[in-house]
């Protein structure tokens, strides 16, 4: 998973205009977007992680880190503004600390246990700056210096702030402000001469001097090709030069291929997508169990190669690691020799117990097709181990004798102890799992092991703290503090302050007796709008000519204000002046608001944070109204005899209690209604008729039906009365209506009998 960290210069000098009509900061933002589009063409870009760091003071320089998604990255990139100093050293240190945040927690560096190229987090830092002078709060330094004091735990275990899988590239913008010349030169982009160039070369990267938009696009395409999974190694020649073959080469002086600072590609496994390896690159010291600390290592291991031709050694089933070298003068020299069947052994100084050069741990060999040079990493001192293992499997048939065991134990004593674990694993794969005793340890002292565990815990805490601080805005000044240079009391403490004030404003005679207008002890000019930066003018000549009248108006309003409000540092109109692009940014306004208090009643429905309607409630959490529930369905269901022909009518009447919805059915013997027929169709048709007007005037309070209608109407259209009392009254009225209808339906039957 490659990590792409963009370090953007946000100093004030990035506001200068180019011949394109845009600022340097706009060009930098566009370059980031173009790079991401070019990178997206590669299928391997799905696992990319993007980070954004600026030149702001720590910890506010990290805009997008380990937990931020792509949308947050693009939003922070769009909102960047150029203001401040060119603190390149502090910004680089912040970027490296951000990348090294989880390395101690995951154990990827494997301190004191050898360097594993297959344990890596390939990172590319792309810095976009204008290459101007470095500025700091203490002055203008001539050279680039990175702070040595890092808040990250375990940073003292590596001499440099970066690691061997982190490379720095710089796009130094040199675009002119006038029109670009037509005769633009094509070809390779030269390196820049700014202070960051040397830092790029140390990490294995380079800088680009960008003078036109076309060169910028060319550099971005080149940077996309640089995103490779690998680690940087220093290859240095040891011993004499190889014998001359065909091309005469001057042996006097140092050649470019004698020392190369290049990358070796660590290819991921096609099936799992994760690099797989077996053998480490040895440390440059012999582990001592009595040592309480670990010596600091260099970020890039120094691998020395001997130019003595040797036969490449390999046996069946013994695993080895193969890494391709980045094209360099060394690879060019090896390929020009055209000897793919010979190899050069590689060493790490002071890796053995007694020998200064150490024992070989692998070899450099050209490919059979002479297209590249590969580094083969084998077990430590493989010229001794491989013949022993070959004899064990082919001669002794896994039944070793005493002489073979003594030779094998002698080899184990000369091998660094951190090779025991990978050697056990390799022997298990070969079919000889019990050759090495389980009592042998890794060679680190107890104090070193406990110290590494403690560093891992501290790094985890620092990681959590830094992740929380990402995205926080720098606190703005609440006001302008007015310094006091004397011990005398301020003018505000004088008894005749009002008379003095009237003399200053011209309303009274001016009194210049022991007055010092520059002293205001304990005063602080408050700023109502926090977005407006204070203008602490100590000298009147510092005010620009175009702002003189405006500044004079502000000073007069601040001086003559007599209300209880805060002293304003700007005009009334300016307080409510907001750019159009920020008018709808309601989320930022919510972030600035204090956290709300908890609700007194937890059962109360929560209010939705909806822009434009803060009183909108969540309908899912609302309680059901009892009256609405009664209208929707009856609570008290009375049993009705199945033989009653009006039972279905009675139930339907109870389900719709509103006078507009209810259609009461009249019994056949009622004198107030004309019955057309007694068929069910006729009864059903009467439900859709309006309520007829009664023929005889009756007292409405005496009629239970009218009383029920009135109560139902009050219930549906008024909430001034208590709901439960109304429901009880309604039930009583309904009972009276049922009794009246029952009595009227029995009258014809009595006369007939």
From TrEMBL:
PROSITE patterns reported for this sequence: VWFA (PS50234)
Protein name, as recorded: Integrator complex subunit 6 like
Ranges for region Disordered: 633-672
GO biological process: snRNA 3'-end processing
Originating organism: Sparus aurata
Domain called VWFA: residue spans: 3-227
Record-linked Pfam families: Beta-barrel_INTS6, VWA_2
Top-level taxon of the source organism: Eukaryota
Gene Ontology cellular-component terms listed: integrator complex
């Amino acid at each position: 998973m490659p990590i792409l960290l963009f370090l953007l210069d946000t100093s004030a000098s990035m506001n200068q205009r180019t011949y394109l009509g845009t600022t340097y900061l706009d060009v930098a933002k566009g370059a980031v977007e173009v790079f991401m589009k070019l990178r997206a063409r590669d299928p391997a870009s799905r696992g990319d992680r993007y980070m954004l760091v600026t030149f702001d003071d720590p910890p506010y320089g990290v805009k997008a880190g380990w937990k931020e998604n792509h949308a947050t990255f693009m939003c922070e990139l769009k909102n960047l503004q150029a203001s401040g100093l060119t603190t390149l050293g502090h910004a680089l240190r912040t970027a490296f600390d951000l990348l090294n945040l989880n390395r101690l927690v995951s154990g990827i560096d494997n301190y004191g246990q050898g360097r594993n190229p297959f344990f890596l987090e390939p990172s590319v830092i792309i810095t976009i700056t204008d290459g101007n002078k470095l500025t700091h709060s203490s002055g203008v330094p001539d050279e680039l210096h990175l702070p040595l004091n890092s808040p990250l735990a375990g940073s003292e275990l590596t001499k440099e702030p970066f690691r061997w899988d982190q490379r720095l590239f710089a796009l130094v913008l040199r675009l002119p402000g006038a029109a670009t010349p037509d005769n633009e030169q094509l070809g390779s982009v030269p390196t820049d001469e700014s202070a960051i160039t040397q830092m790029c070369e140390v990490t294995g990267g380079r800088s680009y001097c960008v003078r036109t938009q076309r060169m910028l696009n060319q550099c971005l395409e080149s940077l996309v090709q640089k995103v490779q999974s690998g680690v940087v190694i220093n290859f240095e020649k040891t011993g004499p030069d190889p014998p001359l073959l065909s091309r005469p080469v001057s042996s006097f002086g140092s050649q470019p291929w004698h020392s190369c600072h290049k990358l070796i590609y660590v290819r991921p496994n096609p099936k799992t997508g994760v690099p797989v390896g077996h053998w480490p690159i040895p440390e440059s010291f012999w582990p001592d169990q009595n040592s309480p600390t670990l010596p600091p290592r260099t970020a890039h291991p120094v691998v020395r190669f001997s130019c003595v031709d040797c036969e490449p050694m390999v046996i069946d089933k013994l695993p080895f690691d193969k890494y391709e070298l980045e094209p360099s003068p060394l690879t060019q020299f090896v390929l020009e020799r055209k000897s793919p069947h010979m190899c050069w052994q590689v060493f790490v100084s002071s890796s053995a117990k007694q020998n200064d050069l150490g024992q070989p741990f692998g070899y450099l060999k050209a490919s059979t097709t002479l297209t590249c040079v590969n580094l083969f990493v084998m077990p430590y001192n493989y010229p001794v181990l491989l013949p022993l293992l070959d004899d064990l499997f082919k001669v002794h048939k896994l039944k070793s004798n005493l002489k073979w065991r003594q030779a094998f134990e002698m080899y184990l004593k000369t091998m660094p102890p951190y090779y025991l674990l990978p050697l056990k694993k390799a022997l298990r794969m070969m079919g000889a799992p019990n050759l090495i005793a389980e009592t042998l340890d890794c060679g680190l002292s107890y104090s070193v092991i406990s110290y590494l565990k403690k560093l891992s815990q501290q790094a985890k805490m620092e990681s959590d703290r830094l992740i929380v601080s990402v995205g926080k805005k720098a606190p703005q000044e609440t006001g302008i503090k007015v310094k006091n240079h004397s011990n005398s009391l301020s003018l505000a403490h004088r008894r005749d302050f009002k008379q003095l004030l009237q003399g200053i404003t011209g309303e009274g005679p001016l009194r210049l007796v022991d007055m010092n207008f520059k002293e205001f002890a304990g005063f602080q000019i408050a700023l109502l709008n926090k977005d407006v930066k204070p203008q602490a003018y100590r000298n009147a000549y510092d005010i620009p000519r175009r702002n003189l009248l405006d500044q004079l108006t502000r000073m007069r309003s601040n001086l003559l204000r007599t209300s209880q409000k805060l002293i304003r540092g700007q005009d009334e109109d300016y307080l409510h002046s907001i750019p159009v692009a920020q008018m709808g940014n309601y989320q930022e306004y919510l972030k600035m608001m204090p956290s709300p208090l908890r609700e007194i009643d937890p059962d109360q429905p929560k209010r939705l944070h909806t822009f434009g309607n803060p009183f909108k409630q969540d309908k899912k959490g609302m309680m059901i109204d009892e009256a609405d529930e009664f209208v929707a369905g009856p609570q008290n269901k009375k049993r009705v005899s199945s033989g009653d022909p009006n039972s279905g009518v009675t139930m339907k009447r109870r389900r719709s209690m509103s006078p507009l919805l209810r259609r009461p059915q009249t019994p056949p013997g009622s004198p107030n209604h004309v019955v057309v027929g007694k068929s069910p169709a006729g009864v059903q048709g009467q439900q859709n008729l309006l309520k007829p007007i009664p023929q005889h005037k009756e007292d409405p309070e005496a009629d239970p039906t009218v009383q029920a209608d009135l109560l139902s109407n009050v219930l549906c259209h008024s909430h001034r009365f208590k709901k439960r009392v109304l429901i009880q009254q309604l039930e009583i009225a309904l009972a009276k209506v049922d009794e009246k209808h029952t009595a009227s339906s029995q009258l014809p039957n009595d006369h007939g009998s």
